[in-house]
Amino acid sequence: MKIGFVSLGLIGGSVAMALRENYPEARIVAYNRSKEPLDAALSDGVIDTGVQEIDDSFSGCDYIFLCAPVETNISFIPRLLPYITEDTVLTDVGSTKGNIHEAMKRLAPDVHFIGGHPMAGKEKSSYFNASGELIDGCYYFLTPSEAVTDEEVSDFEKLISSLGCHPITVQPDRHDFIVGAISHVPHMAAYSLVKLVQDEDTPEEYMRVTAAGGFRDITRVASSDPTMWEEICIANRDNITKLMDIYIDKLREVREHIAAGEGEALYDIFKGAKEYRDSMLK
Prior knowledge:
Layout: E1 2-6, H1 10-22, E2 27-31, H2 35-44, E3 49-51, E4 63-66, H3 70-80, E5 89-92, H4 98-107, E6 112-118, E7 139-144, H5 150-162, E8 166-169, H6 172-200, H7 206-210, H8 213-218, H9 226-235, H10 237-259, H11 263-279
Parallel strand pairs: 1-2, 1-4, 2-3, 4-5, 5-6, 7-8
Antiparallel strand pairs: 6-7
C-alpha cells in the first residue's frame, strides 16, 4: 500500500503516525512546504519520502490525504491530478466539507474523492505535537463523493477503523452543520469569553492572573491557530452564523431568568444541560 500526505501538520502527522504503526510495510510519501517536519518524519521512520514540491513521488498512491487548511487543500487538487489514477482515492481531513466537494465537482469530477474529518485535535498545531494516539478512539466523519464506489467507501472505512477510529458516513452539508454546533461555535464562544476578560479586566489584570481551572478549561481552544479558524469561519459561515443566533437566544433566555430571579427556571436549564453533558461521557 502506498499513501501520500499533502502537509504534515498536527492531524496529517498524527494520521501518518497511526498508519505507520499499523501498516509498517506501507510506503508513505509526504509533501510539506517547510523542511523541518519532513526531516523529523523521516528520522522518526513515519515517512519514506519527503518532498517540498508536488511531483511524481505521488504516482501510484492508493490513498492521498490532503491535510492543509481547506482552501489550501483545494489549491493542491490541480497539482495532484497528473499523479492520480482511477485506483487512487483522494481524501482530506478538513473541518468543512461543502466547499471542497464543490471544488471537486468543478476541478476533478471523476476523481474518487472521500471527504474525511477526524474529530480530534489540540490547541497546539504542527507535526511536532502530532501523535498516533491523538486519533485513537475518535469519531471520523466520511463524506463520499458520487465518483466513488461502495467498495471503495467500505475499504476506506476499514482502513480508518484499523487506526482505532469510528467512521460515520454523512452528507457534506449535514457534516458542516454538525461540526458547526459541536466545534465551530464553541470556538467562537471561547474567543469571545477571552475577549470579554481582556476588555473588562482591572488595571491590575486580576482577571487574567486569577483565572483558574474552569475558565482555562472552557477557553482552552482559544489558543488554536487563528489563521486556520479564520478560514473555517469563512468556509462554514452560513451554519456558524445560524447556530450562533440560536446560541445567543439561549444566552438571552438564561440572562432573562437571572435578571428576574427565576431560580427554578435556571435550575431546570442547568439540570437538563448537566444530564445531557454527562451522557457524553458514557
